[in-house]
Every structure is written in C-alpha cells, then in structure tokens.
C-alpha cells in the first residue's frame, strides 16, 4: 500500500499552531509515502519558519490574494512536479484519525476514478454532500441516516478533505481561481469533474471533524459585496457555479430560477447586515 506516491496540499493563513498540529498528525499516521505542501497566503505569524526542519514538507508562499482556490492550485502544480499517484487536499483545521491516508487509498480502490470524501461531523450532523435534483437542480444536503450505505455518490462535498487521482487535473483542469477564488471553488470543480467521468464518493467508513468556518462575512462592505472574495454574494462565483451546474449561460438564466431567487435573498440579507453593522458603530 505504501508504494503509492501521495501529495498532501494544505492551504493556510495566520494559524500557525493549527497548521503545525495538522502536519504533526499526518506525520504520525500509518501511511508513510507522502509529501506535504504548505500553501501559505503570506502569513505574518511566523508560519513560514515552522517547517524548516521537517522532512517531506515543502513550503510555498502563494501570496495574500490567492485565497483557497488559488492556494490549492499552486499546491497542485507543485505536487504534479513529483509525478504523484494521488493528491489529497486537506484543510488544516479538521480532526482525523492516524489512518486517514491509508483509509482513503483503500476506499479509492473500491471506487476507481473517483474523488473520495470522508463523512464530515458538523454541528448539524454527519454531512456527506449535496445532490442537485430535477430540472431545476434543487440542492439537497445529504446527512447520515439509517439508509446510508458504505459508499454514497454525491455531486459535491465540502473541499476540506478531498482525495483524488492525479490524472484528474489533466482531464478536468484546475480549480477555477478566477471566477471562484474562494466560495464554490470546490463544488464547481467537482461538478466539472463529474461531467468528465469522475464521481464524488463519500465513504461512511472514514470520519473527520470539521473546524468552525472562518468569519469573512464581517469584512463585507456595500462597495465590495459583489467582488470581495469572502462575500456570500460574490457574483462571479455565483454565476460560474450556476453555469457549470446547468451546462450553459442560457440554461442557468432560464431554469436556474430558484438559485436567482435565493441569491437575491442573500443580497438583501447581506445589505441589511452591513447597514446594521454600520449603524451600530
């Protein structure tokens, strides 16, 4: 099993201790043949000095403006230089067992040509992913229940832990960091991959614990609410995801009506939040 070359990509920004904890847990794991690529968005907390003496760790300063998608893409490009068999994208704030990589490899070989995602423990339950149902692609979040089998096919899952064969990037391309620099980058990639024959399979045999989401919402302002990468109504992300899901601009315009309605609701909510925040000041 240790014959497979696995490259692990970890994006981070100013959370040195969390990143170190994640790295040390990987290094203490049961799988041995892997390399870690830290994709740091120009941290100012000394993150870059923490990994100098570690073996099998490469540090990349990808720049402050890369955000999640750009940081991951930098890591993927570096990882591909080592001709890996598999790439694991992992956020540093999740908790996982010391058999994570070994378990992902085992379940990949039961589901070839797939993206493997673990079962994710959240404050709402054990989350698997999303399916987009019917002509109008109504999103349905899938949580663990008595009817869930060992492996479940979803159309997208959270990008905090995704394991995939390296050749997927030559077929599908990279994550769209231009249109989806942060929000929807993971989901849009998985939908694109599915259309090229790579399913996302969630394994209920592997469990991880998600950390709390980073609060970017409080940084949104009226003047940048449609362009700020961390905004819940970042328009290019919304549009690119919709076009990929529905297959064309025209399809998204005409039959993406529920998405347009929910987007307008989010715009209203965001405006009210910003106005309230300014009023409180």
Structure described in brief:
This protein is an alpha/beta fold and 281 residues long.
Structural features:
281 residues, alpha/beta, 5-stranded mixed β-sheet
User: How does the overall form come out from the CA principal axes?
Assistant: globular
The whole-angstrom Rg is 19 Å
Structural class: alpha/beta
Average pLDDT taken over every residue: 94
Give a count of the beta strands, DSSP E runs of length 2 or more.
Answer: 10
Element order, helices and strands? EHEEHEHEEEEEHHEHHH
Portion of residues in beta strands equals: 15-25%
Write out the strand line-up for the largest beta sheet, numbering strands in chain order: 3-2-1-4-9
Helical percentage: 25-40%
Give a quick account of the main beta sheet: strands, pairing sense, barrel closure: 5 strands, mixed
Termini, distance in Å? 58 Å
